[in-house]
Amino acid sequence: MKKLILLFFVITLCNCVGEDIYDDFVEQRIIVSNPISDLKVGDTYQFGFSYFNNVGKKEDVNVNWMSSNTSVITIDNQGLATAVAEGTTKITVSLTQDENIKYELSVNSGSETVMMEDPTEIVGVIKSTSSYQLEGDFTLADAGHGLELRLASNFKATTALPGLYVYLSNNPTSISNAYEIGAVTVFSGANTMSIDASIGIMDYTYLLYFCKPYNVKVGHGKISN
Questions:
Q1: CB atoms within 10 A of CB 107
Q2: Whether the Cβ atoms of residue 159 and residue 187 lie closer than 8 Å to each other
C-alpha cells in the first residue's frame, strides 16, 4: 500500500513539472522607486531606488547617481537632486560594481515639482507551463485598501492537483522571496483575491501558480508595466 501511495506522489509530481526545465537566474534590475517628471527650480528632491538581484530578490547595494546636464539639475551620490535652472536632464542610477545595470529617467526643471504616479491597474495573461489546464486574463488593481487580483471570466484552472497556490514574484521560476496570495479556491470564471496593503503594484513582475506540496511551477502570467 505504501508503495502505491509513493508511486502516486511520483506520478503527480512528474505531471506537475511537465516538460519545462527551470533556471532560477533572472536579469538584474534597478529602478527609481519614487520618480518625478518635473522639479521646481530652487527645490531639492531625494530620489530612492530598489535593486533586484539575479534571483529576483531585493538587495541593498551601492549605486552611483548622475545628471546628464548639471547646469539644469545637479545630484549627489546619495540621490539628492537640486534644480538650478530651467531645462531638461537625464537622471541615471547605476550599480557601482556594474554601471551597465542602470535606470534612467528624463526630468524637467521648471515652475513646479510633479510626481510620476504608479498605475492603478496592470493586466496580464495566465498560461500553463505544465500538463495541467491553467489559463485566463487577469488584472492587478489598486482597490484603495490594498491590491486585488481580479481574474477574468475566461479563467480556468485544474482541480486535479493536491494544492494549487498563487504568488507574486520577481523570479518566473521560483517562489523563494515571493508573496503568497493564497490557495486557489475558485477554478473557473471571474473571481477576486485580496493582497496585503503593504504590497505595491510595481513590486513584482510575475504572477506564479505553484503546486505547493511539491514546490513545482504549474503556470505563470507576466505583469505588464
A1: 29
A2: yes
Cβ atoms of 193 and 185 closer than 8 Å: no
Q: How far apart are CA 150 and CA 166, in angstroms?
A: 12
Q: Does residue 128 sit in the same domain as residue 110?
A: no
Tell me whether strands 73-75 and 63-67 are parallel, antiparallel or unpaired.
unpaired
Rounded Cα–Cα distance for residues 67 and 62 (Å): 17
Sign of the Cα pseudo-torsion (161, 162, 167, 170, in order)? negative
For residue 25, give the 3-state DSSP assignment: coil
Report pLDDT digits (tens) over 199-216. Answer: 989 889 999 999 999 999
Q: In which domain, by residue range, is 71 found?
A: 29-115
| Closest of 33, 23, 31, 32 to residue 54, by C-alpha | 23
89 lies in the same domain as 172:
no
Residue 17: inside a domain, yes or no?
no
According to DSSP, the β-strands at 102-110 and 36-40 are parallel
Q: What is the pTM of this model?
A: 0.76
Same domain, 56 and 94: yes
Residues 95 and 135 both lie in one domain: no
Half-sphere exposure of 99 (CA within 13 A, CB side): 4
Residues 74 and 58 in one domain: yes
Q: pLDDT per residue over 125-156, tens digit each?
A: 999 999 999 999 999 999 988 999 999 999 99
Last residue of a domain, one of 66, 85, 115: 115
